[in-house]
Design a protein that fits this description.
- This protein has 5 helices and 2 strands.
- It has a two-stranded antiparallel ribbon.
- It is mostly helical.
- It has one domain: Helix Hairpins, CATH 1.10.287.
- The chain is globular.
Amino acid sequence: MLVIILLVALELCSSVVNIPNTKLAFFLTYIVYFTFLSVNVYRQVLFSKEVNIGMIAAVLCGFIILGLTGGFIFSMIEYLQPHSFNNIAVGVAYVSDLIYFSFITILSIGYGDITPATQIAQKTALLFGLLGYFYGVVVIGVIIGKYLARK
């Protein structure tokens, strides 16, 4: 709850008063918030005793959180180093473009409509591609292991 209040306050500050680095604090707060959520979700998946609908929902939530975290990290890179990504919208709409890019990257689809242009953007996209692949492999392994252990 406190994080949501902080996010709303940061958004108001960045839109009403032009305080330097407010947008950076906004991105960092989102990243910390989603990292905290993801640790809790991943812990629930790993320590679940059996495969049930709650575990499947946690797996899906964990994947969505991974994609959103990637989108905010890519947005922070674009904010700190403008033109780090090719073919993204101008203004605040670039955040939604980079969330889309994050999901396309972790799903290993790679349409090529948005591409990283700087080294930090390329390395971060590579990291999230590996995280998406690793997430799928580990989660499938955990689910199969728990299902077989139950039988």
